[in-house]
Amino acid sequence: MKDKIFKIFSSSIKIKITGRNINNFLKRIIRNNINIIKVIPISYKEMDLIIDYKNLDKIEKLKTIYNIKIIRYYGKLRILKRIKKNIFILSFLLIGLFLVYILSNLILSIEVIHSNNNIIKLVENELEENGIKKYHFALSYDEVEKVKKKILEDNKDSLEWLEIIKEGTKYIVRVEERIINNVPDDNNIYDIVASKGAVIKSIYAKSGEKIRDVNTYVKKGDIVISSKIILPNNEIITKSANGKIIGEVWYSIRVEFPYVYNEIKYTGNKKKVLVFNFLNKRISIFDFNKYKTFDKNIKYIFNNNIIPISLTYEHEYETKVINDIYTYNTAREKAILIAKEKLLNKYSSIIDITDIKIINEEDMTSKIVIDLFITCDEDITLYKKVENATIE
User: Fold this and answer.
1) SS (H, E, C) the chain
2) For the residues 308-318, what does the mean pLDDT come to?
3) pLDDT of residue 307 exceeding 70
4) Greater model confidence, 276 or 355
5) What confidence category does residue 1 fall into, taking pLDDT thresholds of 50, 70 and 90?
6) Per-range mean pLDDT, top range of 28-42, 245-259, 288-302
7) Order of strands, edge to edge, in the sheet holding 198-207?
8) What average pLDDT does range 239-255 have in this prediction?
Protein backbone atom coordinates (compact mmCIF):
# COMPACT_ATOMS: atom_id res chain seq x y z
CA MET A 1 0.00 0.00 0.00
CA LYS A 2 2.83 2.37 0.90
CA ASP A 3 4.55 1.58 -2.42
CA LYS A 4 1.40 2.49 -4.36
CA ILE A 5 1.01 5.79 -2.55
CA PHE A 6 4.70 6.53 -3.09
CA LYS A 7 4.41 5.89 -6.83
CA ILE A 8 1.47 8.27 -7.14
CA PHE A 9 3.30 11.21 -5.59
CA SER A 10 6.88 10.43 -6.66
CA SER A 11 8.71 11.28 -9.89
CA SER A 12 10.30 7.92 -10.63
CA ILE A 13 11.04 6.06 -13.86
CA LYS A 14 11.75 2.53 -15.04
CA ILE A 15 14.81 2.22 -17.26
CA LYS A 16 16.08 -0.76 -19.28
CA ILE A 17 19.86 -1.34 -19.29
CA THR A 18 21.42 -3.67 -21.88
CA GLY A 19 25.03 -4.68 -22.45
CA ARG A 20 27.75 -7.10 -21.29
CA ASN A 21 28.35 -7.71 -17.58
CA ILE A 22 25.23 -5.91 -16.38
CA ASN A 23 26.06 -6.75 -12.77
CA ASN A 24 29.32 -4.78 -13.03
CA PHE A 25 27.36 -1.72 -14.10
CA LEU A 26 24.94 -2.23 -11.23
CA LYS A 27 27.87 -2.30 -8.78
CA ARG A 28 29.24 0.91 -10.32
CA ILE A 29 25.87 2.63 -9.75
CA ILE A 30 25.82 1.51 -6.12
CA ARG A 31 29.40 2.66 -5.51
CA ASN A 32 28.43 6.14 -6.72
CA ASN A 33 25.70 6.29 -4.05
CA ILE A 34 22.89 6.43 -6.58
CA ASN A 35 19.67 5.26 -4.95
CA ILE A 36 17.88 2.40 -6.69
CA ILE A 37 14.22 1.87 -5.82
CA LYS A 38 13.92 -1.57 -7.39
CA VAL A 39 16.06 -3.99 -9.44
CA ILE A 40 14.33 -6.29 -11.94
CA PRO A 41 16.81 -8.86 -13.43
CA ILE A 42 15.87 -10.14 -16.91
CA SER A 43 19.04 -11.84 -18.19
CA TYR A 44 22.82 -11.53 -17.80
CA LYS A 45 22.73 -8.91 -20.58
CA GLU A 46 19.59 -7.05 -19.53
CA MET A 47 17.89 -5.66 -16.45
CA ASP A 48 15.28 -3.07 -15.47
CA LEU A 49 15.77 -0.49 -12.72
CA ILE A 50 13.29 1.78 -11.06
CA ILE A 51 15.04 4.97 -9.98
CA ASP A 52 14.30 8.58 -9.08
CA TYR A 53 14.06 10.68 -12.22
CA LYS A 54 16.61 13.12 -10.80
CA ASN A 55 19.26 10.33 -10.84
CA LEU A 56 18.90 9.63 -14.57
CA ASP A 57 21.66 12.08 -15.57
CA LYS A 58 24.10 10.51 -13.07
CA ILE A 59 23.49 7.03 -14.52
CA GLU A 60 23.82 8.38 -18.08
CA LYS A 61 27.32 9.65 -17.20
CA LEU A 62 28.32 6.18 -15.94
CA LYS A 63 26.90 4.10 -18.78
CA THR A 64 29.97 3.94 -21.11
CA ILE A 65 29.24 0.87 -23.27
CA TYR A 66 25.76 0.23 -21.90
CA ASN A 67 22.50 1.25 -23.51
CA ILE A 68 19.86 2.93 -21.36
CA LYS A 69 16.25 3.39 -22.38
CA ILE A 70 13.32 4.88 -20.42
CA ILE A 71 10.42 2.43 -20.65
CA ARG A 72 7.97 3.83 -18.09
CA TYR A 73 7.21 6.91 -16.00
CA TYR A 74 5.56 6.86 -12.57
CA GLY A 75 3.66 9.34 -10.40
CA LYS A 76 3.65 13.00 -11.37
CA LEU A 77 5.86 12.41 -14.39
CA ARG A 78 3.47 9.83 -15.82
CA ILE A 79 0.54 12.23 -15.36
CA LEU A 80 2.44 15.11 -16.96
CA LYS A 81 3.52 12.94 -19.90
CA ARG A 82 -0.08 11.84 -20.51
CA ILE A 83 -1.32 15.41 -20.29
CA LYS A 84 1.36 16.51 -22.75
CA LYS A 85 0.50 13.67 -25.11
CA ASN A 86 -3.23 14.45 -24.99
CA ILE A 87 -2.95 18.22 -24.58
CA PHE A 88 -5.01 18.94 -27.69
CA ILE A 89 -7.92 16.71 -26.64
CA LEU A 90 -7.87 17.99 -23.05
CA SER A 91 -7.70 21.61 -24.19
CA PHE A 92 -10.61 21.04 -26.57
CA LEU A 93 -12.66 19.39 -23.80
CA LEU A 94 -11.96 22.18 -21.31
CA ILE A 95 -12.80 24.87 -23.87
CA GLY A 96 -15.97 22.95 -24.75
CA LEU A 97 -17.02 22.68 -21.11
CA PHE A 98 -16.32 26.37 -20.60
CA LEU A 99 -18.37 27.32 -23.66
CA VAL A 100 -21.25 25.08 -22.58
CA TYR A 101 -21.23 26.72 -19.16
CA ILE A 102 -21.12 30.20 -20.68
CA LEU A 103 -23.87 29.51 -23.22
CA SER A 104 -26.16 27.81 -20.70
CA ASN A 105 -25.87 30.60 -18.14
CA LEU A 106 -25.59 33.72 -20.30
CA ILE A 107 -28.80 35.66 -20.90
CA LEU A 108 -29.05 36.80 -24.52
CA SER A 109 -32.57 38.22 -24.46
CA ILE A 110 -35.31 39.33 -22.05
CA GLU A 111 -38.96 39.35 -23.12
CA VAL A 112 -41.58 41.13 -20.99
CA ILE A 113 -45.08 39.99 -21.96
CA HIS A 114 -47.80 42.63 -21.54
CA SER A 115 -50.07 44.72 -23.76
CA ASN A 116 -49.18 48.04 -22.10
CA ASN A 117 -45.89 49.51 -23.38
CA ASN A 118 -45.53 51.65 -20.25
CA ILE A 119 -45.71 48.56 -18.03
CA ILE A 120 -43.18 46.77 -20.27
CA LYS A 121 -40.77 49.71 -20.04
CA LEU A 122 -41.25 49.94 -16.25
CA VAL A 123 -40.50 46.24 -15.73
CA GLU A 124 -37.49 46.31 -18.09
CA ASN A 125 -35.97 49.22 -16.16
CA GLU A 126 -36.63 47.51 -12.82
CA LEU A 127 -35.06 44.25 -14.04
CA GLU A 128 -31.95 46.07 -15.25
CA GLU A 129 -31.58 47.95 -11.96
CA ASN A 130 -31.78 44.65 -10.08
CA GLY A 131 -29.15 42.81 -12.12
CA ILE A 132 -31.28 40.98 -14.72
CA LYS A 133 -29.74 42.21 -17.97
CA LYS A 134 -28.93 40.99 -21.45
CA TYR A 135 -25.41 39.58 -21.91
CA HIS A 136 -25.09 38.96 -18.16
CA PHE A 137 -25.05 35.64 -16.32
CA ALA A 138 -28.36 34.23 -15.11
CA LEU A 139 -29.16 34.65 -11.43
CA SER A 140 -29.83 31.74 -9.09
CA TYR A 141 -33.39 30.78 -8.17
CA ASP A 142 -33.15 32.49 -4.75
CA GLU A 143 -31.74 35.66 -6.32
CA VAL A 144 -34.57 35.77 -8.89
CA GLU A 145 -37.15 35.36 -6.09
CA LYS A 146 -35.59 38.30 -4.22
CA VAL A 147 -35.71 40.44 -7.39
CA LYS A 148 -39.40 39.58 -7.94
CA LYS A 149 -40.31 40.52 -4.37
CA LYS A 150 -38.35 43.77 -4.54
CA ILE A 151 -39.91 44.86 -7.85
CA LEU A 152 -43.44 44.13 -6.58
CA GLU A 153 -42.69 45.88 -3.28
CA ASP A 154 -41.33 48.99 -5.05
CA ASN A 155 -44.27 49.15 -7.49
CA LYS A 156 -47.29 48.29 -5.35
CA ASP A 157 -49.53 50.73 -7.17
CA SER A 158 -48.54 49.56 -10.66
CA LEU A 159 -47.89 45.81 -10.53
CA GLU A 160 -50.14 43.05 -9.21
CA TRP A 161 -48.10 39.94 -10.07
CA LEU A 162 -44.75 39.07 -11.65
CA GLU A 163 -43.17 35.85 -12.91
CA ILE A 164 -39.63 35.39 -14.27
CA ILE A 165 -38.85 32.14 -16.11
CA LYS A 166 -35.51 31.19 -17.67
CA GLU A 167 -35.80 29.32 -20.95
CA GLY A 168 -32.36 28.49 -22.30
CA THR A 169 -30.56 31.79 -22.77
CA LYS A 170 -33.73 33.84 -22.44
CA TYR A 171 -35.75 35.30 -19.57
CA ILE A 172 -39.51 35.38 -20.16
CA VAL A 173 -41.23 37.81 -17.81
CA ARG A 174 -45.00 37.75 -17.34
CA VAL A 175 -46.61 40.59 -15.45
CA GLU A 176 -50.09 41.63 -14.35
CA GLU A 177 -50.91 45.31 -13.96
CA ARG A 178 -52.62 46.44 -10.78
CA ILE A 179 -55.93 47.95 -11.79
CA ILE A 180 -56.90 50.86 -9.59
CA ASN A 181 -60.03 52.89 -10.13
CA ASN A 182 -58.20 56.13 -10.69
CA VAL A 183 -60.14 59.29 -11.25
CA PRO A 184 -60.71 59.58 -15.03
CA ASP A 185 -58.40 62.22 -16.44
CA ASP A 186 -60.70 63.85 -18.96
CA ASN A 187 -63.41 66.50 -19.20
CA ASN A 188 -66.36 64.09 -19.01
CA ILE A 189 -68.83 63.84 -16.15
CA TYR A 190 -68.92 60.66 -14.08
CA ASP A 191 -71.14 59.10 -11.43
CA ILE A 192 -69.65 56.56 -9.02
CA VAL A 193 -71.68 53.35 -9.02
CA ALA A 194 -71.38 49.96 -7.29
CA SER A 195 -69.39 47.46 -9.34
CA LYS A 196 -71.31 44.57 -7.70
CA GLY A 197 -74.06 43.88 -5.18
CA ALA A 198 -72.96 44.72 -1.63
CA VAL A 199 -73.81 46.32 1.70
CA ILE A 200 -72.04 49.69 1.87
CA LYS A 201 -69.47 49.81 4.69
CA SER A 202 -67.99 53.22 3.96
CA ILE A 203 -68.21 56.04 1.39
CA TYR A 204 -65.40 58.53 0.70
CA ALA A 205 -66.64 61.39 -1.48
CA LYS A 206 -64.15 64.08 -2.56
CA SER A 207 -66.64 65.59 -4.98
CA GLY A 208 -70.20 64.81 -5.95
CA GLU A 209 -73.12 64.01 -3.64
CA LYS A 210 -73.65 60.82 -1.63
CA ILE A 211 -77.12 59.50 -2.34
CA ARG A 212 -76.76 56.20 -0.45
CA ASP A 213 -76.17 55.58 3.26
CA VAL A 214 -73.74 53.28 5.01
CA ASN A 215 -75.17 49.82 5.88
CA THR A 216 -77.65 49.93 2.97
CA TYR A 217 -77.69 47.34 0.21
CA VAL A 218 -76.85 48.35 -3.37
CA LYS A 219 -77.12 46.35 -6.58
CA LYS A 220 -74.57 46.36 -9.35
CA GLY A 221 -74.78 49.68 -11.23
CA ASP A 222 -76.62 51.62 -8.48
CA ILE A 223 -75.39 55.21 -8.15
CA VAL A 224 -73.72 55.84 -4.78
CA ILE A 225 -71.99 59.19 -5.40
CA SER A 226 -73.87 61.35 -7.91
CA SER A 227 -72.48 64.03 -10.18
CA LYS A 228 -75.62 66.12 -9.52
CA ILE A 229 -75.19 68.28 -6.42
CA ILE A 230 -78.25 69.93 -4.79
CA LEU A 231 -77.42 73.27 -3.22
CA PRO A 232 -79.24 74.59 -0.10
CA ASN A 233 -81.45 76.75 -2.35
CA ASN A 234 -82.44 73.57 -4.26
CA GLU A 235 -80.39 74.61 -7.26
CA ILE A 236 -78.76 71.63 -9.01
CA ILE A 237 -75.25 71.85 -10.36
CA THR A 238 -73.21 69.15 -12.15
CA LYS A 239 -69.69 68.17 -11.08
CA SER A 240 -67.92 64.89 -11.83
CA ALA A 241 -67.94 62.53 -8.83
CA ASN A 242 -64.68 61.56 -7.18
CA GLY A 243 -64.33 59.06 -4.33
CA LYS A 244 -64.37 55.45 -3.19
CA ILE A 245 -66.91 52.89 -2.01
CA ILE A 246 -66.08 50.00 0.32
CA GLY A 247 -68.73 47.30 0.45
CA GLU A 248 -69.38 44.00 2.19
CA VAL A 249 -69.50 41.34 -0.53
CA TRP A 250 -70.30 37.61 -0.27
CA TYR A 251 -68.98 34.62 -2.17
CA SER A 252 -70.02 30.96 -2.15
CA ILE A 253 -67.20 28.52 -2.86
CA ARG A 254 -67.02 24.72 -3.00
CA VAL A 255 -63.58 23.25 -2.40
CA GLU A 256 -62.22 19.74 -1.85
CA PHE A 257 -58.98 18.46 -0.41
CA PRO A 258 -57.58 14.86 -0.30
CA TYR A 259 -56.48 13.13 2.90
CA VAL A 260 -53.47 11.66 1.11
CA TYR A 261 -51.93 14.51 -0.81
CA ASN A 262 -49.34 13.69 -3.47
CA GLU A 263 -48.23 16.32 -5.92
CA ILE A 264 -45.25 17.14 -8.06
CA LYS A 265 -45.21 20.81 -8.89
CA TYR A 266 -43.01 22.37 -11.55
CA THR A 267 -41.51 25.57 -10.21
CA GLY A 268 -40.93 26.98 -13.71
CA ASN A 269 -37.15 26.94 -13.24
CA LYS A 270 -35.10 25.00 -15.73
CA LYS A 271 -31.51 24.83 -16.87
CA LYS A 272 -29.03 22.94 -19.04
CA VAL A 273 -26.36 20.90 -17.29
CA LEU A 274 -23.33 18.94 -18.48
CA VAL A 275 -23.13 15.65 -16.55
CA PHE A 276 -20.32 13.11 -16.23
CA ASN A 277 -21.57 9.61 -15.32
CA PHE A 278 -19.21 6.92 -14.00
CA LEU A 279 -20.51 3.63 -12.57
CA ASN A 280 -23.41 4.73 -10.34
CA LYS A 281 -22.04 8.20 -9.74
CA ARG A 282 -23.48 11.30 -11.40
CA ILE A 283 -21.27 14.41 -11.41
CA SER A 284 -22.80 17.63 -12.76
CA ILE A 285 -20.16 20.00 -14.15
CA PHE A 286 -20.26 23.74 -13.35
CA ASP A 287 -23.66 23.28 -11.68
CA PHE A 288 -23.50 25.65 -8.73
CA ASN A 289 -27.26 25.83 -8.09
CA LYS A 290 -28.40 22.21 -7.79
CA TYR A 291 -32.09 21.32 -7.72
CA LYS A 292 -33.23 19.01 -4.91
CA THR A 293 -35.78 17.30 -7.17
CA PHE A 294 -36.21 17.60 -10.93
CA ASP A 295 -37.28 15.95 -14.16
CA LYS A 296 -34.79 15.72 -16.99
CA ASN A 297 -34.35 15.10 -20.69
CA ILE A 298 -31.01 13.50 -21.55
CA LYS A 299 -28.90 13.89 -24.68
CA TYR A 300 -25.77 11.73 -24.90
CA ILE A 301 -22.55 13.44 -26.00
CA PHE A 302 -20.42 10.36 -25.30
CA ASN A 303 -21.44 6.86 -24.21
CA ASN A 304 -19.39 3.66 -23.89
CA ASN A 305 -21.26 0.34 -23.95
CA ILE A 306 -18.31 -1.57 -22.47
CA ILE A 307 -17.08 0.80 -19.76
CA PRO A 308 -19.84 2.34 -17.58
CA ILE A 309 -18.92 5.90 -18.45
CA SER A 310 -20.80 8.62 -20.32
CA LEU A 311 -21.03 12.36 -20.85
CA THR A 312 -24.54 13.77 -21.17
CA TYR A 313 -26.22 17.11 -21.78
CA GLU A 314 -29.36 17.37 -19.66
CA HIS A 315 -32.36 19.71 -19.61
CA GLU A 316 -33.41 19.82 -15.95
CA TYR A 317 -36.86 21.01 -14.84
CA GLU A 318 -37.06 21.80 -11.11
CA THR A 319 -39.91 20.18 -9.20
CA LYS A 320 -41.35 20.45 -5.71
CA VAL A 321 -42.53 17.13 -4.31
CA ILE A 322 -45.36 17.22 -1.78
CA ASN A 323 -46.27 14.02 0.08
CA ASP A 324 -48.58 14.52 3.06
CA ILE A 325 -51.23 12.58 4.98
CA TYR A 326 -53.91 14.70 6.67
CA THR A 327 -56.47 14.13 9.39
CA TYR A 328 -60.05 15.30 8.88
CA ASN A 329 -59.51 18.57 10.77
CA THR A 330 -56.19 19.33 9.07
CA ALA A 331 -57.65 18.63 5.62
CA ARG A 332 -60.53 21.01 6.40
CA GLU A 333 -58.08 23.76 7.42
CA LYS A 334 -56.10 23.22 4.20
CA ALA A 335 -59.29 23.36 2.12
CA ILE A 336 -60.33 26.65 3.73
CA LEU A 337 -56.85 28.09 3.16
CA ILE A 338 -56.97 27.11 -0.53
CA ALA A 339 -60.42 28.73 -0.88
CA LYS A 340 -59.10 31.99 0.57
CA GLU A 341 -56.05 31.96 -1.73
CA LYS A 342 -58.19 31.32 -4.81
CA LEU A 343 -60.53 34.16 -3.91
CA LEU A 344 -57.75 36.67 -3.24
CA ASN A 345 -55.96 35.71 -6.46
CA LYS A 346 -59.13 36.11 -8.49
CA TYR A 347 -60.29 39.45 -7.04
CA SER A 348 -57.49 41.94 -6.39
CA SER A 349 -60.09 44.47 -5.21
CA ILE A 350 -60.71 42.47 -1.99
CA ILE A 351 -59.33 44.41 0.97
CA ASP A 352 -59.96 41.86 3.69
CA ILE A 353 -61.74 38.55 4.33
CA THR A 354 -63.85 39.25 7.42
CA ASP A 355 -65.72 35.99 7.94
CA ILE A 356 -65.86 32.39 6.72
CA LYS A 357 -68.81 30.09 7.42
CA ILE A 358 -68.97 26.38 6.56
CA ILE A 359 -72.38 25.77 4.99
CA ASN A 360 -71.92 22.09 4.28
CA GLU A 361 -69.14 19.51 4.57
CA GLU A 362 -68.84 15.92 3.41
CA ASP A 363 -66.36 13.38 4.77
CA MET A 364 -65.70 11.08 1.81
CA THR A 365 -63.37 8.06 1.71
CA SER A 366 -60.40 9.82 0.18
CA LYS A 367 -61.21 13.52 0.56
CA ILE A 368 -63.18 16.24 2.29
CA VAL A 369 -65.62 18.45 0.36
CA ILE A 370 -66.87 21.68 1.92
CA ASP A 371 -69.13 24.55 0.85
CA LEU A 372 -68.07 27.93 2.20
CA PHE A 373 -69.82 31.29 2.55
CA ILE A 374 -67.14 33.98 2.61
CA THR A 375 -67.68 37.61 3.60
CA CYS A 376 -65.21 40.25 2.34
CA ASP A 377 -64.60 43.97 2.51
CA GLU A 378 -64.04 45.01 -1.09
CA ASP A 379 -63.47 48.13 -3.14
CA ILE A 380 -66.61 48.29 -5.30
CA THR A 381 -65.89 51.71 -6.83
CA LEU A 382 -66.79 52.04 -10.51
CA TYR A 383 -66.79 55.28 -12.53
CA LYS A 384 -69.70 55.50 -14.96
CA LYS A 385 -69.77 58.21 -17.62
CA VAL A 386 -72.85 60.41 -17.67
CA GLU A 387 -73.92 60.89 -21.27
CA ASN A 388 -74.74 64.38 -22.59
CA ALA A 389 -73.79 66.03 -19.27
CA THR A 390 -72.01 69.36 -19.07
CA ILE A 391 -70.07 70.98 -16.25
CA GLU A 392 -71.91 73.92 -14.72
Assistant:
1) CHHHHHHHHCCEEEEEEECCCHHHHHHHHHHCCCCEEEEEEEECCEEEEEEEHHHHHHHHHHCCCCEEEEEEECHHHHHHHHHHHCHHHHHHHHHHHHHHHHHHHEECEEEEECCCHHHHHHHHHHHHHCCCCCCEECCCHHHHHHHHHHHHHHCCCCEEEEEEEEECCEEEEEEEECCCCCCCCCCCCEEEEECCCEEEEEEEEEECEECCCCCCEECCCCEEEECEEECCCCCEEECCCEEEEEEEEEEEEEEEEECEEEEEEEEEEEEEEEEEEECCEEEEECCCCCCCCEEEEEEEEEEECCCCEEEEEEEEEEEEEEEEECCHHHHHHHHHHHHHHHHHHHCCCEEEEEEEEEEEEEECCCEEEEEEEEEEEEECEEEEECCCCCCC
2) 79
3) no
4) 355
5) very low
6) 245-259
7) 217-218, 198-207, 242-258, 367-379, 350-363
8) 91
Q: Span 233-241, mean pLDDT? A: 86
